[in-house]
Amino acid sequence: MTRSLALIDHNFRENEEANRLFLAVLTSRRDPGQILRRMNESGVLGRFVPEFGKIVSMMQFNMYHHYTVDEHLIRTVEVLAEIDKGKAEEIHPLAAKLMPGIEDRQSLYVAVLLHDVAKGRQEDHSIAGAKVARKLCPRFGLNPKQTELVVWLIEQHLLMSMVAQTRDLHDRKTITDFADKVQSLDRLKMLLVLTVCDIRAVGPGVWNGWKGQLLRTLYYETELLLSGGFSEVSRKERAKHAAEQLGKALGNWSQKDQKTYTKLHYEPYLLSVELEDQIRHAHFIRESDKAGKALATMVRTHSFHAITEITVLSPDHPRLLSIIAGACAAAGANIADAQIFTTSDGRALDTILINREFPIDEDEMRRAATIGKMIEDVLSGHKRLPEVIATRSKGKKKNKTFPVQPDVTISNALSNKFTVVEVECLDRIGLLAEITAVLSDLSLDIHSARITTFGEKVIDTFYVTDLVGQKITNENRQASIVTQLKGVMAEQGDELRDRMPSGIIAQAVQRSAPAQKKAKV
């Protein structure tokens, strides 16, 4: 085959039968990945599709992608074939469910094979890849409608992953903006499957159940909107109904307790937290009150989602998320998501989701309990945060091999209620604690946070308002936020030492204890 590569010339590439056979190989229900790999190793694939030949053995210089571009593309096809054969139901239940209903398999397979074919060019690889697909698809025998679908899938192949991992999926505008770009259920189904295949083929350990859960949530919310099933009932009515449902679920409690613990929560909590979790939180808060504990943590682990949940009940404080983030960093836990709520009696109920480390639940629960204890110790002032982070960072080399230019984006168009602050920079221990400390210094109230790590790079997204609940619209103030965040993103590990006075939550506990007793009375 290698000696005969010269026979694959322009005329051969344009031959209708040759392209029909290639498409049959690519969409085969047997093992297309194995045949594509042999074609690639012998040079046939790069010769028949010259655009593919340009990315053969191309390295991606970062810690996120484990494979060369050509290997990544072939592995993506292998994952798609695995889903297509019904062998991935346990790992990808939604993709496995949707795949049999996708009629245009050809377009999906072509999009999966070509989605990164323009890597290494000066132009954005999604846009350049779409141009390549517009030229190649008619040659492969795809009709104009199929060609446009492949072009759209390649152009938007990162969209679903980025929205799911960096946006608040409980914010209505996130879903409406995403639905406006997707526009049809067919596109939504194919984009979900392409996204799953792309993440799975990046490298070992990159895919986890939490990413799957985020993608499923985004899919179901968008499907509801595209199919016309999105509720038009007002937020106030839906929140009232949610409070009533919580009250009914606590039916075996005294009327006094039912009333007390259902009235603790504001609209955002009632509308975004599942009823099952609301019930758990109600029991958790009541038990803490009975024990007279102003500060408490609760842990839960979920093996399928590969995520561990730590719920923190504490007197509210502007620096609370920053201190929790620092405590997690000190305990070696990577935060994936944070939901921040304030109760009507002035307490914070924060749910921190951390990436799972152990496959066995018992081991993971012990680890989570240790992290929860670390959070309690730091909040109560028994341990000083700068010291525990310094101990953790000691001896760790700073990663300067992969330069990431710090970037801060502020947008008021991504949410109806919040200003969205997105931070992108090189990851390091204690970074999230420092960033959230800066946001607190700037008198910004963080309502939710999404923490996403891509190898050595981190993208953190914060939904914020000013202290009176308004968006940040003043340009000078926005510029100040950008300047201060860029300052802390420069690698200065000692900054936290100056930002974190010890025991501030302990002081808040003492101050708020009488107020809490009064509220209970």
Descriptive key words:
single chain; 521 residues; alpha+beta; 8 strands
How far apart the termini lie comes to 85 Å
Low-pLDDT ranges: 493-498, 512-521
Strand order of the largest sheet: 1-2-4-3-7-8-6-5
**Molecular shape:** elongated
Structure description:
The chain has 2 domains: 5-226, no CATH class; 293-396 and 404-516, no CATH class. The protein contains 25 helices and 8 strands. Helices cover 54% and strands 13% of the residues. The chain is elongated and about 80 Å long. It has helices at residues 10-13, 16-26, 32-42, 44-48, 50-53, 69-84, 93-98, 105-114, 125-140, 144-155, 159-166, 172-182, 185-200, 209-226, 235-249, 255-262, 267-272, 275-290, 320-330, 361-380, 385-393, 431-441, 475-489, 495-499, 504-520, and strands at residues 296-302, 307-315, 335-342, 347-355, 407-411, 419-426, 444-454, 457-466. The longest helix is centred in the last third of the chain and has 20 residues, at 361-380. Helix 6 packs antiparallel against helix 8 (105-114), helix 13 runs antiparallel to helix 14 and helix 19 (320-330) runs parallel beside helix 21. With 521 residues, it is α+β, with helices and mostly antiparallel strands. The chain has an 8-stranded antiparallel β-sheet, sandwiched between helices.
